Amino acid sequence: FPTRRSSDLAVALGIDVSSAGLGFGWGFAYTGYELIGAALASAMFRVVRPDEFGGSPDYTLGTKLVSEFIGTYFLVLTVGLNVLGKSAGPVWSIAASLMSMIYALGNCSGAHFNPAVTLPLLASGRNIISAAEAGAYMGVQILGGICASFLCSHAPRRNLCAGSWQGLQLWPCGSGRDHLHVCPLLRRAVDRKSVV
Q1: CA–CA distance from 193 to each of 19, 22, 165, 188 (Å)?
Q2: 190 vs 91, more confident
């Protein structure tokens, strides 16, 4: 159902209401999941940025590990979804994901996000990271990768924007945030045989 693919509460509810004849209620469920996701994101922000809320400006090992987990998770998730979606240009989304994670979390933990980065930093002998901290980093990076891989293993095995939808033949709708809003609206227009 297309409301499960939009990334905006108003769009999810608007599409759900406009397609009430085809099934109603998914927009409300999706809205609930988006609110849960927003609450989790807010909680994680508090964890990786304690200084923003009156905490110490020196990040603890726990803060650094959460930062490494989040960064590794999103990097592996992006790679996995590109592979599953048979993306024609995975380099762009993977680079954007990595750049975003480095920008958001780099000053928290150093933005290693990969045991293959952490181990050479430890082995360089430049005292960039202690052995105990490197072991913890690598452990949490592996855990983040496993969690992202688990999510990818449960993702649909088809392009989420192209293919068949309730008996209709659909077309690829592009990429990026815009397709999340435009595709369902175009689909609805085709469903009603109206002119787009």
Answers
A1: 13, 14, 15, 9
A2: 91
40-77: per-residue pLDDT in tens?
A: 999 999 999 999 999 888 999 999 999 999 999 999 99
Distance CA 2, CA 161 (A): 9
Helix (H, G, I), strand (E, B) or coil at 115: helix
What is the rounded distance in angstroms from the CA atom of residue 106 to the CA atom of residue 67? 8
Q: Tokens 């996701």 correspond to what residue?
A: 37
Closest among 2, 138, 135, 155 to 77, alpha carbons compared: 155
CB < 8 Å & 24+ apart, contacts of 87-93? 89/175, 93/175
Half-sphere exposure of 162 (CA within 13 A, CB side): 9
Backbone angles phi, psi at 165, to 5 degrees: -140, 115
Task: Measure the CA angle with vertex 187, ends 186 and 191; round to 5°.
Answer: 120
The tokens describing 181, both together, are 């809003």
